[in-house]
Design a protein that fits this description.
It contains eight helices and eight strands. With about 280 residues, it is an alpha+beta fold. Strands 1, 2, 3, 4, 5, 6, 7 and 8 form an eight-stranded mixed sheet that branches. A hairpin with a 2-residue loop joins strand 3 and strand 4. The two termini are about 35 Å apart. One of its GO terms (cellular component) is chloroplast.
């Protein structure tokens, strides 16, 4: 799910679930000074580039919610790698990457802190692996997305946001549940991505599964995700996770927002009300 190079500071939806701190076609992160948008990135950042996948040892994989700023920064860097295509020979590219990561990082902290109007709760869910398992095969990933956790160096290899809200900006809204309690029982996935070096290891499925468990604890009964109509890998991931088709974005809306048209997928969840 690579986005266009140097996207504008308005988020754009590009893959399949909302993503990055904005939603546009080349999802950019939003800061308090810019309109909030999610990147409609389909789960499992499915880049359109084929490359060798690195096998992983899942016994050392951790998939969990995070509030650690170091880990949030690593997640922001992973999203920049996943949602944009860069020409590394371009002048000032590293500064541009850092600028995008800083915007996503600040927006992510703001959402998690409950400062975004219209959102009751937001959680960043990350998949991480020990640096020692990856350092020999993914140098760039390790350098960009590394963080320290209780004295151990780990790398964020997958990430998404779980958003408890009625709708996402500039996206078609779900219809379930109906009535006065809808704002407490509906949630959306956004910024779903997996490091391109580690595709086909089931990491997208792992983070989506974790998001469903967290949503159940929040009392969510209806979980949604947006995905672009031509993103078959993302649609396959969501279908495997139990999502089904609910609605299509009107073609005029996609043209107006200058982005690929999306579909809205839905899954019903049992409500555990543990929190």
């Amino acid at each position: 799910m690579a986005l266009l190079s140097f996207p504008q500071p308005s988020f754009s939806y590009r893959c399949s679930s909302i993503s990055f701190s904005s939603w546009h076609q080349s999802s950019v992160v939003v800061t308090t000074a810019h309109p909030f948008r999610f990147l409609a990135v389909a789960a499992a950042t499915t880049t359109h580039r084929q490359q060798q996948s690195t096998p992983i040892d899942k016994s050392s994989l951790i998939v969990a919610e995070t509030a650690s700023e170091d880990q949030l920064w690593a997640a922001a860097c992973l999203r920049v790698r996943s949602f944009y295509n860069f020409q590394d020979s371009s002048y000032g590219i590293q500064d541009h990457k850092r600028y995008l990561a800083e915007r996503e990082f600040e927006a992510l902290k703001e959402r998690i802190a409950g400062k975004r109007e219209g959102f009751k709760r937001v959680s960043c869910i990350n998949a991480t692996l020990p640096l020692s398992q990856l350092s020999s095969s993914a140098d760039d990933l390790c350098a960009a997305c590394k963080f320290a956790d209780n004295g151990e160096d780990r790398v964020v290899v997958g990430s998404l946001d779980l958003n408890q809200c009625l709708w996402l900006p500039e996206e078609i809204a779900g219809t379930k549940p109906e009535g006065i309690e809808a704002d407490f029982a509906r949630a959306y996935l956004s910024n779903v991505c997996v490091a391109r070096e580690l595709h086909r290891n089931g990491l997208g499925y792992e983070i989506v599964s974790k998001s469903k468990r967290v949503a159940e604890k929040w009392g969510i009964t209806d979980l949604y995700v947006h995905v672009t109509v031509d993103n078959e890998p993302a649609k396959n991931l969501y279908m495997k996770s139990g999502f089904i088709h609910e609605n299509d974005e009107p073609a005029w809306q996609a043209r107006f927002l200058d982005r690929p048209r999306r579909i809205l997928l839905w899954i019903g969840l049992p409500c555990s009300n543990e929190l």
